Amino acid sequence: MAAGASCAQTTTGAVPSSDQGQVVENVLVTAQKRGVAENSQTVPIALTALGSVQLDELHAQNLANLTTIAPNVTFADVGTIPGYANFTIRGVGINTSIPSVEPAVGVFVDGIYLGMSAGAVLDLFDVEDVEILRGPQATLFGRNTTGGAVLINTRRPGDTFSVRGRASVETGLQETFGFSVEGPIADRLKAKVVAYYNNDAGWFKNQFDGQSFGATHTSFVRPTIVWSPTQDVDATLIYERGATRGNGAVVQNPAYFHHFTVDIDNPGYNKYDWEAVTSEVDWRPGAGVVTNLFGYRRLEQSASIDVDGQPRPLFHAADDLDQHQISEELRFSGRLLDRLAVTAGLYYFEQDFTYLERRNLLNGTPFAIDSTLGGKIHDTNYAAFAEATYDIVPGVGLIAGGRFTSERKSAQIATFVPKTSNSLCDFTTGTCIFNFPGPSFPGAPGSNTWDNFVPKLGVQWQESQDVLFYGTWTRGVRSGGYNVRNTSFTISPGPYDPELEDSFELGVKSDTFDRRLRFNAALFYSKLKDLQRDVNETDPIVGVVQVTANTADATIRGFEFEATGAVGEGFVLNANAGYTEGRYDKVRFDLDTDGVIGPSDFGLQIPRLSKWSYSVGAAYARDLGEGLTLQLRADYGYRSRAAETDSNLTFYAPVRSLTASASVAFGGGRWVASVYGRNLLDAVMDGANSPLPAFLGGGTFRTLYEGRVIGAELRFTN
Description:
This protein is mainly β. The model is unreliable at 1-12 (pLDDT under 50).
């Protein structure tokens, strides 16, 4: 069963009990890679799992729509390049669209790690569940999960013939259609095919030409085959191919424009083409489960953007990215000697990508620049891992694990030259003259290897069937590397070292009042060493350059809780809240750019760290008779403001998100008609907010999310 799958497909988060009314539903997850699904309340990890029914209720088109669904979690699309994830959990995340910057929150689709943040804000259709794991997950999931991990599991074909469909229309205008057909096609062979199309004409209006803006058209097909040659073997093959076409980023310069006003002379473009193959074979020899998981993914992305956010050709940019990755994982999961539960395995990952970025500045003036930079990265990763829980007495277990990783990266980089005639790359032909490694950067190697061991220790106490206490110490690692967006001839693009995190967590999971109330809470304390940040540095040639470097050590701590209560017949309340605070312990860079490293640097806020987040919601279901069921839901989420830049020159505005829906199920539950709204408060929410220099008109580069959206949807399941 896929991770996070609900064992009860209800619309309210509660299930009927024959003698006691309603109880809060159990959720099954595979966050510990045990080979079998486990009740989330017995797993010593802070996590939030959303099943397919809850995703339908929330009318979430992509992960960004779930940004307040869990405490201390931010699912942000950076906006600079649409679909580029800048996810943050517990104050640990990234703040950039540079493809060589590794994520701090890993995204896994059907168990396969997505090798970069580009293309990670995925449309959610025919998804069985989404599982959000908070805190470092390096032992089982590897590097680049220092903040946490997001597991997305697509739905596998069932044992009977079934057709499912979904059609919706939203203000904008946006139309979405999804369709799947599945079932057995031969003895021991099941299959399904999914088709999806989203046509968004653009929610915004560009004042420059009076046209709708923000258009996006996304489509994909995903066939899946499951073969069970014997009772003990299952083989699954999933193929996906998709494409996105649309306008460039929705950019506003708030020094000149406000609210949702957009006035830019370059609407730009955004293109994604991807294909992926996933192969999973599970063999159950008796003592446990042996799993072989292979993944291949290719991503081609290109975009053009109006960086200055004004109706003048001051700063336009374009980029082109071509990425390939393969991965292979072989693992065993099982219980040995009755008391010992073990997951152990080997892992291999390889990735290649090429990146080009073209910058057009001050077009039409004597100072015009049209120059392209770029780079190539080759990345290989080998790992061996194991995690075990030993029951010293019934209900009390000791947790121990570790992962050894050896990673090697090689880089070739062409620096940005602020002279059109001397550009080291040609954006049209995709060719470059690389000046790194080379004499321009003496002593800086073009390849490097990093070896890391990340341990985990902990204890869990199942005090009763309904109460679990746990405590863990976990280390996480974020990969070192090279900056492919290099704009300096004097500052080397790398290598910079891995970022390390030691995290301590105490948690409790409980079901009380005969399972009518669920309350989960956690305290966490993390020490981060060699923080990787993208900072601005002065340069004698370019003036200001963007540098990726190990800038500081920091401490982050906080708490979080989630609660769900079945308070009446068909009525469920839910709430979550999180608090996070952070401080710099050591600073190695002049973060505030005042020329010295001093007290003012230590007093800065850590970027993308929001102190407070919370969400409250209610769901209600009622049988109306005549085969009709009414379903109502409303959720309000809040996240406090956070610094955007390391220098704290700009901040992200607070997030205030109100969503609501009303649905009627009919035809024996096969049909569901809904009306819904997202961002009903019409709040302005930004994805990026970076300062611009005075010679480009000043102000900031700001990307925007859509305001109020009203929609209607019809779903069918036979």
